[in-house]
Amino acid sequence: MPNKTLKVGVVQQAVADNNKQTNWNKSAEQVAKLADEGCECILLQELHSTLYFCQQEDTDAFDLAEPIPGPATDFFGELAEKHNIVLVTSLFEKRGSGLYHNTAVVFDRSKEIAGKYRKMHIPDDPGFYEKFYFTPGDMGFQPIQTSVGKLGVLVCWDQWYPEAARLMAMAGADLLFYPTAIGWDLNDTDDERVRQHGAWETIQRSHAVANSVPVIVANRTGFEASPVDGDPGIQFWGQSFIVGPQGEILAKADANEETTLTVELDLARTEQVKRIWPYFRDRRIDAYEDLTKRWRD
């Protein structure tokens, strides 16, 4: 590892409208704050430039997408260079006419793009109609090499799949990052909301445990009304968090607060955990061939 410790930061924010410049400036203020606190690596939430437009299927929403490189990458690249940080962003990418992706872009202390990841698992559920907008990623599960280590960047729905985390770890990811936009269906009962959030947090902590790596999660907060008549909208549940390599919670945000998180990770301890709990040594790769099948009959 390049360092024995690494100070990481997370930005959790609400989005009020589709004014990209306003939202970028809001993110930039928090990034500057975290950089002043000594953070070398900072994560922004999923699709932080605009409202979460996937609550309905609307062809006009494709106007929100932009090429990479483009105005957003110019803005955030300059931010990473200005503050001398590694910055993980999340953008609506227009790859070509009629071809769009949900894409994370990483900058390494420079205006230049260090790497990107296109979201692989695309949901299609009431209020989360992402398959209408996003083509599944075609870049695989490859960590992005930076000055602070190899970053395994995944996006939101990817966080429910242990295969994605495992493949990133198998490729040498030192940390896992999940920019996220998830919240409650307001038609659900309070008990169901508690269960859903608990499952979300537990599955990501389990990725830390199973792969002996820290996990950093940025989720958006705030209420976003649905443009669909009769739909109650989404209350994004925030609660961004950072966990260590045994799934231990090191920092956690509130549900409804715009805030930042800062943690100094002990990467030497991460290495020690891997030596004590050698999961990769004991994997029975000779017996896992059926994992590449959709289902076992």
From TrEMBL:
Residues 6-267 form the CN hydrolase domain. One of its GO terms (molecular function) is N-carbamoylputrescine amidase activity. Keywords: Acyltransferase, Hydrolase, Transferase. One of its GO terms (biological process) is putrescine biosynthetic process from arginine. CDD domains: CPA. It comes from Alteromonas australica. InterPro entries: Aliph_Amidase/BUP, C-N_Hydrolase, C-N_Hydrolase_sf. This is Acyltransferase. It comes from the Bacteria.
